[in-house]
Amino acid sequence: MDLKFTGEIWFWKGPAPWHFVTVPEAECAALEEMAAMVSYGWGMIPVSARIGKAKWTTSLFPKDGRYIVPVKTAVRKAEDLDVGDVVTVHLTI
Length: 93
Prior knowledge:
Blueprint: E1 2-12, E2 18-22, H1 25-38, E3 45-51, E4 54-63, E5 66-71, H2 73-78, E6 86-92
Antiparallel strand pairs: 1-2, 1-6, 2-5, 3-4, 3-6, 4-5
């Protein structure tokens, strides 16, 4: 399954600070259908992700009825991204 969507980068301070992009509701519905087949615990879904030319592997986290995509520091630096930037995310599950 391949998904493409646009979202804003946001920062979570929590005990383990990280940057994320929230998956839109429509795409989350499609992910929910696949979650049982691919999730490896806590509803996390392993994916290959791409923003611009930067590619990485990660897992989608369930949060507040949706999924969030962690955006690694190396990806943000390679694409010159910061909090509030709107990006197009490509996911392969």
